[in-house]
Each structure stands twice: as structure tokens, then as C-alpha cells.
């Protein structure tokens, strides 16, 4: 297939682009480098620099695109609360333009990088696809709105699409890993402490109703995530919009993550307990049973030690260049 990857300079998009290429597909990347890293774009991909809204139609036509993997988006929860207009524009409006360009150019195969934030704060775990969606921030709301739009385009225009919802993507794949100017994810934040880029890691509450009192989250290895995207692209069916949750099926607490980072890096990694953050659920774990049954997806890198080790191998080789948004 000739696959268009939007946001292919970002963490998830660049790894997926690399895996697509390794599996024999041709990849064209669109990215405006507002947050992505130039060095993350696979060398064998064709790069088109620009905004998806402005260049997608031309790229779809001139590069004979067969399928689209759509990652381009704003994804910081706190920022989405402070600047909701940017999230509705960059996420929803951009995707609508992409869907129109796909329709106009006869491209009917789409995989959308969604988020489990569409569920909000679920009352029970693990989270399954039939649970109510109730996002608690504009970021999750934009992603849910896009899912609704995709469903309607599939019904009206025969598109085949899959939305993949996941929480905490982590780890690295070869020379590609997490390297953002603004970092909010736990594992890279803890590794910043190990590198000496911050003094300590904050633990927001140690009195949660969990085994060790710290919040429990589901982590998925970036390479396993890429496998799911490829399986979805290869199995989409006309006029059907599928939604799958992706997770490891295991939950790890904040304390477990910090301890594992200490073990892997050999650094003490000071931690300090702070008050709970409003809106933080005690436990978030996604059920991947549907993806396993219908996609045939089998995550094989679910061990926390493996995830952290891969992340540290990438981060430590960057050294002082880590977290500098190489663009």
C-alpha cells in the first residue's frame, strides 16, 4: 500500500511510519513540525512539510495514496482546557478537511489515532468499548467528535475506518522515542530525573485505593501499538467504522514505574509526594479483548521492565539533547 501518515514526525506517527516501511509499504509523511522532530521521520519516507488542511488533497492525488493513518493533532489535556479553540481547529476541523480530501480522491481506508480520554473518568475498569463516552476536557471531546464524523463518512461514502483508543504509550523503537519540548508523560518525566534534567519526580497522592496508594495506569509499548495500526489498515472493510481499545491489560502504579526506572537506570531518582490532582482516577486500565479477537492483535512487550528499558536506551543516548524538541 501507499500509506499517508499525518503527523509522521511525532512520537507515535514516526514509529508507525517506520514499521509500515519495514513491512513493505510505501509511506508519505505530512507534518508541519509544530511539535514533531525532523530526525524522527523515517529516511525512506517521502516528506511533505505543511498543514494537513492545506496539502492533504494534493498529496492524496499526486502520491497515489491507498490508505491514511491519521496522527496529526494537539494532545495536551491541560492546554486543551486553556486554549480550546486551538484543539477544535487543529483536531476536528483539520480531520474534517482530511476526510473531505479522502472522499474527493477516492481514498477509502483510514486508521485514526484516538484516545481513551473519550471515556472520561469511568466508574469501572477495565474499560471496554461499550462503556459510555464522557470526556472531561476539550482534547477528549475533539477526539470523540472526530469518531462521530468518521462513522458518518463511512455510512455515507463507503469508507472503511478504524479508531484506536489508548492511554499511555511508552518505550522506544530503535532510534525513535519520546522527545518533546513539553512533556507530561510519567516515564519520560522520571527518566528526566535520572538524566539530571529535573531534581525529583512528583507523586500526586499516595492515599489512593490501590495496592501501594499511588495511581495505577495501563502502559502500551510503542511497537505493539504500531502493529495494531498496521493490522487495522490491512483489514478495514468498506462502510464500516470499527473502534478498538488498546492496552497491555496490566496496570502499573506510579510507585512501580519509579522503582522500575531506578532499577533500569541505576539512578536513585528522588520522589516527593504532593496532594492529589483534581480529576485523577485511581485506576485506568483498558480492555484489549475486542482488538485481540477481531484484529488478531497480540501485544508482546507488556512487561514494564521492557518498556522502561527501551525508553531509557533511547533517552540516555540522546543525553543533553533529550527533551529539546529536535526540529
Describe the structure.
Helix content is 39%, strand content 18%. The protein is of the alpha/beta class. Helix 1 (11-22) packs across helix 7, helix 6 (186-195) runs parallel beside helix 8 (254-265) and helix 8 (254-265) packs across helix 10 (304-318). The radius of gyration is 19 Å and the shape is globular.
Characterize the overall form.
globular
Largest sheet: 7 strands, parallel
Rounded to the nearest angstrom, the radius of gyration is 19 Å
Number of DSSP helices? 10
Helix-strand string: EHEEHEHHEHEEHEEHEEHEEHH
Fraction of residues in β-strands: 15-25%
Unreliable spans: 323-327
Main-sheet strand order equals 3-2-1-4-5-6-10
Give the integer mean of the pLDDT values: 94
- Give the % helix: 25-40%
Distance between the ends: 28 Å
Number of strands: 13
What structural class is derived from the secondary structure elements? alpha/beta
Key structural traits:
alpha/beta, 10 helices, four-stranded mixed sheet, 18% strand, disordered C terminus, single chain, seven-stranded parallel sheet
Blueprint (SSEs and pairs):
Elements: E1 2-6, H1 11-22, E2 26-31, E3 46-49, H2 52-62, E4 67-70, H3 77-82, H4 84-104, E5 109-113, H5 138-157, E6 160-166, E7 168-170, H6 186-195, E8 201-204, E9 216-221, H7 222-235, E10 241-246, E11 251-253, H8 254-265, E12 271-274, E13 283-284, H9 289-295, H10 304-318
Parallel strand pairs: 1-2, 1-4, 2-3, 4-5, 5-6, 6-10, 7-9, 8-12, 9-13
Antiparallel strand pairs: 9-11
